## 1
Amino acid sequence: MPPLVNGYRIVLDGFELLVFEVESAPRAVMVQGNGYPYRISDTTSQFSEQKINTIKDQGLVESAEARRSSLDVAALDSALLHRAREASGASDISVEDYLVRRRIADRIGAAIVLREAAVFLFALRPETITHPNASVRVFRVAGTERLTGAQHNVQELPRIEGNLPSVCSKHVRCSER
């Protein structure tokens, strides 16, 4: 069983509560007398250790952002990552701790395992982003309505690819043209 974390007290609607935030274990956990429980929404089901570990290896949640990446921190844009860390008020912690705190990386033993969200946000090179639609297409319409045929007035600008902050800033510059 994973080690217990310290809780904290809050008062909510006049009731004092003890709050414990427990991270998901990176591997299946055997519960004495209860096998391998796996929580899905508001229910708990019994799965085999192998099935739970397969689910966890796919990224804990079936979304492109939550899946584990094969890249490491060196594949991220360090300047952009430092700027984001400082802007969040977390300049006193390491980049790795920042990624874990933002839940876009996991600490597994001494290793940091990125999630695809970290790559979408901070990829140094666009080709390391594996999502097929991680880009922006910009079209410019000359006039106030789209026309077809001989009066076709839609121009497609070059596709914008890269990490999310750079795509957004390039998109803004394109729309200001």
Note: Residues 164-175 form the longest helix (12 residues).
## 2
Amino acid sequence: MSTLATPVQAPADQLAAGAGCCLYGIVPASAAPVAPGGGAAGPEHRATLVPYGRIAGLVRTPLTGPVRPTRPELLGHAGLLDQLAATVPVLPMRFGTVLGSPAAVTREVLEPNHDAYAAALAALAGRAQFMVAARYHEEAVLREVLAEQPAVLHLRHRLRLAGGADPAGRVRLGELVARAIARKRAADAAVLTAALRPHSVAGRLLEPRSSGLVGIGEAVLLVELGHREQLAAAAEQLARRWHGRVRLRLRGPMAAYHFVAGLVDPTRQRR
């Protein structure tokens, strides 16, 4: 997951209580003031705008203590960015980006990067990130493997008769099952991509987050907000096709975490 990093990051625990500010991201200067909403962005994540030219920093200030990577803080940080991304383009900053004051946000982040950030926000206008995760129902995919691979079924039956007294055979069975599922995963990942990409302007498939057998992958997509219903319909159609076999989960809109690095051109700086 990509985010922007500031040139200077002051550790929050080195700031006096009530000093400093946490920088969530960059938004257009025309964005409305941000109030905490539902979901993960709780009332402690109240954000204000620090405008400069056509862009603004989205900040929490003053800080009452260190910004630590606890689950509530991480969820609140992402929740606020994602809440905003449903209506305006957002360039998310790395979690824990802390500067000494709102003036430092302007001086160290907004002013030197104004044109690059403004261009990236223009490219994101009307768009947000969506993600569709796909996972097998484990029992269903194992049944498929056994039905399609007689050698695997025979070996499994032989190991059961042996009462588990063949360690090498168990290892061999695991290898055969893993290879069979890997082939299925490649084929199903291609189907997932083909079904969803027509409803996005950019995207790619991420590898499964875990090393287990059930993950297929996660499609990360940059989508026109006006086409979000078409994307949801395509995901729903695929979920019906794979009912009882594959579980799909659609998330979004969210900030374009996986696309900002490709949008920000560091050579475009205000001179």
Note: The first strand starts at residue 21 and ends at 28.
